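Input chain follows. Return structure tokens only.
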Amino acid sequence: QTYRHPDKIIPVFNTPLVFDYFRNNGYFNNGHIMTPSMNPVFKKAINHGTPKEKIVLLYNRPMIERQASSLLDLLVNTVIAADPEFWADWQFLAIGDTSINANTFQACPAIEVLESLSKSQYAELASRAALGLSLMISPTPCYPAMEMAAAGVLVLTNSYANKNMSLTHDNITSFELFEIDSMAAQFKQLADKWAAQPAIGWHGKPGIDWYYDETNHLHKVSAAIAEQISTTLFL
């Protein structure tokens, strides 16, 4: 209902990607755009240059449907089944919020669920992990994928409409086709890429000029919104 009356609201978008999605779908032609930055505690705790280990880091919040926990579960099971010898000495560690537990993943017994980690603990683990998986089936960026990429992890995530996460960082591979064997094959390609160059993730660079820096535009956006409200109300 809100989207049908764009002249009666002041739209605020949490990223340029979300703004483009709404504009492309004919909802809004303008609005205020936030450019969020990475959590500073996580960023500071990244141990750059740490030797990578055979760890696949899975980030999922089961209560958030767009993070597709069942699909992630099936994907990991398919990945391992396709080449069990290759993955025999790898750890698949799942983290997220307080809703993730030992019952979250039913298809793949190899997934080990960790207790909720602090941001610094998460960064330390990501600094050691070679590979990552995190899904976000919506126009919103997959922030865990971006965090892991900054910590030198080669990450597989999904595209959605105009969202192509591969463009946000060299370490992120984004798939369009939700076909389980295709997704699993792409993840194995990432594993082979890492095996050939174990330090490759530490050389990856951001592909965007927001999020990975420490600039937070909240105050600027807030001031612009206040000015628009003032103008609209003739104050």
